[in-house]
Write a structure and sequence with these properties.
By secondary structure, the chain is α+β, with helices and mostly antiparallel strands. The chain is 21% helix and 27% strand. The radius of gyration is 14 Å and the shape is globular. It holds the Pfam family GATase_5.
Length: 157
């Protein structure tokens, strides 16, 4: 983790997906924690994820407010932070992705994440942690391409 910490401190881009997000929080690189899903079950399905910011290299190829279809596969994906940390993340615009309903959905938060948080960035904006799997949505053969713009945005850096 020292190498990852150094890499991020140099301003380079780091993405932690699913357990990678969990590791970034456990290492203190990102705030908060990932707890067991409220239903206490492993959940594997496609979910709606709304883009909250499109001014980062990770999100520059999305429209703000765009709802993506991305797969999830986790048992410990519920984002949690204390009220002060949540307020700071919201005030600083560090929530990058939120769970959002797909057509006709009512229960769209698959794990009980606070504030429907699906992904956040560090203060500098170069470290992204997210539970959904954009790498599993980069080709029509995988069921969709909604994750591809995230990686294409980084290539343009």
């Amino acid at each position: 983790m020292e190498a990852v910490r150094r890499f991020a401190a140099e301003g380079r881009y780091v993405i932690g997906v699913c357990n990678g997000f969990q590791i970034l929080t456990e290492a203190g690189i990102l705030p908060g924690a990932l707890l067991a899903n409220l239903n206490l079950h492993f959940t594997c399905k496609e979910v709606g994820v709304r883009v909250e910011r499109n001014d980062l290299p990770f999100t520059r190829r999305y429209a703000q407010g765009q709802v993506l279809r991305l797969p999830i596969a986790h048992a410990e994906g519920r984002y949690y932070a204390d009220p002060e940390t949540l307020r700071r993340l919201e005030d600083e615009g560090r929530v990058v992705f939120r769970y959002a309903p797909l057509a006709g959905e009512r229960d769209y938060n698959p794990n009980g994440s606070l504030n429907d948080i699906a992904g956040i960035v560090n203060e500098r904006g170069n470290v992204l942690g997210m539970m959904p799997h954009p790498e599993r949505a980069v080709d029509p053969m995988l069921g969709g391409e909604d994750g591809l713009p995230l990686f294409l945005g980084l290539l343009a850096v």
